Amino acid sequence: MRLTTTIMRATTTIIVLNKDSMIIAREQDVVPFRNRVKEYAVKIGMSLLNQTKLITGASELVRNMLKYGKGGKVLIEVLSNGRESGIRLIFQDQGPGIADIDQAMQDGFTTGRSMGLGLPGTRRLMNEFNIISEVGKGTTVTVIKWKNG
Amino acid sequence: MGQFLLVTIQVDLYDQLAENLEADLVNMVKKANARGVLIDVSAVSIIDSFMGRILGNIASMSKIMDAETVVVGMQPAVAITLVELGLPLKGVYTALNVEKGMELLKTRILLDAADDDDYESDDDDYRTE
After folding, report:
1. Quick one: which H or E segment has residue A121?
2. Which residue of B has its CA nearest to A59?
3. If you average pLDDT over residues A15-31, what whole number do you get?
4. What residue of B is the nearest CA neighbor of A53?
5. Which chain B residues have any C-beta within 8 angstroms of a chain A C-beta?
6. Which domains are seen in chain B, by residue range?
7. What is the block-wise mean pLDDT of chain B (129 residues), using blocks of 10 residues?
């Protein structure tokens, strides 16, 4: 029992296998960005369903970034945790930031015209979801989708 | 019975393109005097909340123009993702493929026509009594 826990801990170390980045400045950057994410997801052999979830979530986040953060930068990383590979996306903007993250994570909450599904919906589509925001400085959203996750 | 418009979306649409499609379709409904709109999304691999909203808008706008909208051929992975995202495309009819979508439109429009007939025959009965 003790041995298995040690092994579990040892194998959860995440290694970054590949790094790429993309600047998102205009609405026209959304589709090329989605295609880039898809390329990496296909490369690691991610299932079609997980690809669809990853790219749809990525699309939501990149739209948020354009709408509220006036664009920004996305890092696309290929990861391995020893058992399987995955994709990590880090969305960074220098926008106004989010005052109340708990509120922003609720279904249906929006300050814009949208339906307010972006953040909570995306969290459901991903395996890991993390958001850090500082008012006046910007927002960073990090998501991970594992190949079979 | 009027005509049906068939729109096949072949690529992942840019936002502007999707918004143009929305406006063009509603104009075409008027121009072609269409009673039904079929939107084939079998080649679309991603439907996010923006695209979902466009589909919903097309359906509501067409409805006001007295035309029904059916979205056909959605990929299973897209359907699963839409529901998990929290966007079940309420108010939009869906069908497995174009033929089934066409049948659905025909029955919907026939039903509407039958309802109208009922009202008329009711009137007749009333008069004969």
Report:
1. helix A118-125
2. B48
3. 93
4. B81
5. 12, 14-16, 45-50, 53, 75-78, 80-81, 84-87
6. 3-128 (3.30.750.24)
7. 84 85 92 93 93 92 93 96 90 93 90 67 45
DSSP 3-state of B92: coil
Of B57, B26, B70, the residue nearest A113 (C-alpha): B57
Residue A67, number of CB atoms within 10 A of its CB: 16
CA distance A109 to chain B (A): 13
pLDDT band, residue A58 (cuts 50/70/90): very high
Among B70, B79, B75, residue whose Cα is nearest residue B98 = B70
- Cα torsion B53, B58, B64, B69: sign: negative
Domains of chain A: 14-146 (3.30.565.10)
